[in-house]
């Protein structure tokens, strides 16, 4: 059985990833991985667990770059929560910043298979799509 803090974090990351996973044919800037704070045109995702800034708003088909989510409220305003790196539309890396814990880094080989040395919490790449 997991504690309520772990469940809240899992739920928050799951909601964030669902928000990040939208697809479109809209183009996104190629330098998305270098962005450290949410740009003005980041979307605001409001849900029962937390409000998040998401950028880019949608990932184009065969997207190469990063989709990121930052906290949009409270003491952690504009701090990075999750970054999902895509290469040609496939998830290749994920970075999760859970409050009070060291960052979780996950890497995936094409087509989404976890690298053998990934932490167990990473799970399959489909978890992050």
Overview of the structural elements:
With 129 residues, the protein is mainly β. The protein has one domain (4-127). Helix content is 13%, strand content 33%. It is built from 1 helix and 9 strands; from the N terminus they run αβββββββββ. The chain has one helix at residues 4-20; strands at 23-24, 43-46, 51-55, 59-60, 65-71, 80-87, 90-96, 104-109, 113-114.
Give me the secondary-structure topology.
Elements (H helix, E strand, L loop, with lengths): L3 H17 L2 E2 L18 E4 L4 E5 L3 E2 L4 E7 L8 E8 L2 E7 L7 E6 L3 E2 L15
Parallel strand pairs: 1-4
Antiparallel strand pairs: 2-3, 3-5, 5-6, 6-7, 7-8, 8-9
Give a concise summary:
This protein is mostly beta strands and 129 residues long. The chain has one domain. It contains one helix and nine strands.
Number of domains: 1
Largest sheet: 7 strands, antiparallel
Q: Briefly note the structural class of the backbone.
A: mainly beta
Average pLDDT figure: 78
The N- to C-terminal Cα distance equals 26 Å
**Global shape:** globular
- Overall strand count: 9
Low-confidence stretches: 1-27
Strand content: 25-35%
Listing every helix as H and every strand as E from the N terminus to the C terminus, the arrangement reads HEEEEEEEEE
Radius of gyration: 14 Å
Strands of the biggest beta sheet: in what spatial order?
A: 2-3-5-6-7-8-9
Q: Please give the count of helices.
A: 1
Helical fraction equals 10-25%
Q: Keywords for this structure?
A:
single chain; 129 residues; mainly beta; seven-stranded antiparallel sheet; 13% helix; globular; disordered N terminus
